[in-house]
Each structure stands twice: as structure tokens, then as C-alpha cells.
Design goal:
alpha+beta; D-amino Acid Aminotransferase, Chain A, domain 1; five-stranded antiparallel sheet; globular
């Protein structure tokens, strides 16, 4: 089941386990995530799990997990007020600023020097968390790694984010995504990111820099653009997971795991 993005509906919390074999959350709407979490709490297989989705949507937690697995990452700071980034040494700039729970290009901005903080939109009195990452020189193309189970694909596409000037990024429409062959290092990075974050369906944004590939972030259930076989692969993997889930429940393994956790 793919949960729809529908902000005009009331969604009841199920009193009993839904009759679904599995539930997949597509998109970032909170109603969809709520339905997936409720179904998972009632024993339905969630692909991805609410815990894994929550981890990668919290970019601070995600970075900590990836650092623990030796994934190459940009230097990153976080703060509840962007004004504190003015205190960073000048050699830390340029910096890319983004919300800690950002989606795509939302809220991205470039700071070329400490005084550029004044170019950021006012917070309106809200207290939020912001990430500041070192800016990485690339060729203007994004490398996306798409994972399904144990399989990894690579797609190269022009970056939609224009950071040619300090301040909020300009977002442009781009075309031309193309599948690319991945070397062993990129395959290992893609698989490690998925396993570290507990994801069955995932995407990894990679910057190809002079010092090698650097992971910008990991996302749950990406678009799989330019991967024509992705739909079938998602269905096959979900069916396999659902069968294993049913066998485990039939064998009482969920009760064994619960007992082990409580012991």
C-alpha cells in the first residue's frame, strides 16, 4: 500500500491490525508517516520502519550514525540560531545552511563569509535547528545512489540548486538524469548508508569532489528517477520481506524477541 498525501482527510488510528501484508510510506507528509507508524505498531510490516525514517529525517542523528560507520561526510555544525554561525572562523567558509529536517532543496542557503548570515530569512521568533556544512566544489552534477535491499543503482543529474551567490539558493528546473555505472567504492558507500540507517528503500546524495566522494545526506524512499526497473525491484523486495515477516510471526519469533528485550 502506498499512503497518499492528503491533508484534507481525518485518519483514524486503527483499533485492530489492518489487513495489509505491508505498508510503504511514499512522500514526506506527516499524515502518511502517522498512518505508517500506526500500522507498524499494530504489527503490519513497515517498509521503511518508522524508526529508520525518523533517523534519516533528523539530519543530525543521521550524520552521527554515518560518522560511526566511517562514511566520508562534510564538516558539519548545528545550532538553534543561525546568528551563531557568524562566530565560526573565516577558514570554515563557504558554508551551506539547511534545516536539520530539510526536504530536498527547502531552506538551503550559501554563506561565503560570516557577515552573510544577515542574508538569511528571519526566523520569525521560531526556535529551530539548522545545519551548517562545508561547501564542496563539484562539477554541477548530483550523483544519486538508489538502494533497494542489497541492490544499488547510480544516477547522474544536473543539480537543481544554484548556489552561485550568497544567500538563499535559487532552485531551477533541470532535466537529463541518466543511469551510470558505479565502482566498488560507491557501491560500498551506498550499501553501508542503507544498512547503517536501517533502511530497505533509500537514496544517498553524493558530491564527487577532488578528495573523493562525500555523502551529503541519506533519504528514505527516493524518486528512483532514470531507474526503469525500480518499480519491479521494490515490489519483489517488499513481497520477500512480507513473507519473512509472516513466517516470523507464525513461528512466534516476535514473542521471543519481545521476551528477550524485556528480560
Amino acid at each position: 500500500m502506498v499512503v497518499p498525501d492528503d491533508g484534507e482527510r481525518l485518519f483514524p488510528i486503527p483499533a485492530h491490525a489492518p489487513v495489509w501484508d505491508a505498508v510503504l510510506a511514499r512522500g514526506r507528509d506527516l499524515a502518511g508517516f502517522g498512518l505508517l507508524a500506526a500500522a507498524a505498531a499494530r504489527g503490519v510490516l513497515a517498509v521503511n520502519t518508522p524508526q529508520a525514517i525518523g533517523l534519516v529525517r533528523n539530519k543530525i542523528a543521521m550524520q552521527a550514525v554515518l560518522l560511526d560507520h566511517k562514511i566520508p561526510l562534510p564538516r558539519t555544525w548545528f545550532a538553534t540560531d543561525t546568528s551563531v554561525f557568524e562566530r565560526l572562523p573565516a577558514d570554515c567558509f563557504p558554508l551551506v545552511i539547511k534545516p536539520f529536517d530539510g526536504d530536498g532543496a527547502r531552506g538551503i542557503a550559501l554563506l561565503t563569509r560570516p557577515t552573510d548570515v544577515a542574508l538569511l530569512p528571519p526566523s520569525g521568533g521560531r526556535r529551530e535547528l539548522y545545519l551548517a556544512q562545508e561547501w564542496l566544489a563539484t562539477d554541477g552534477w548530483d550523483l544519486k545512489l538508489y538502494g533497494i535491499g542489497r541492490r544499488i543503482w547510480g544516477v547522474r543529474k544536473p543539480s537543481p540548486v544554484d548556489l552561485s551567490h550568497p544567500g538563499p539558493a535559487r532552485i531551477r528546473r533541470v532535466d537529463g538524469a541518466e543511469q551510470v555505472t558505479l565502482d566498488a567504492e560507491l557501491i560500498d558507500i551506498g550499501l553501508t548508508c542503507g544498512r547503517a540507517c536501517g533502511l530497505e528503500l533509500w537514496g544517498v546524495d553524493v558530491a564527487r569532489t577532488p578528495r573523493g566522494p562525500v555523502v551529503i545526506e541519506v533519504n528514505d524512499f527516493p524518486t528512483y528517477s532514470a531507474i526503469p526497473q525500480a518499480g519491479g525491484a521494490i515490489a519483489e523486495h517488499t513481497i520477500a520481506l512480507a513473507r519473512m515477516h509472516q513466517l516470523a510471526r507464525a513461528a512466534g519469533l516476535d514473542r521471543v524477541h519481545s521476551f528477550a528485550r524485556d528480560a
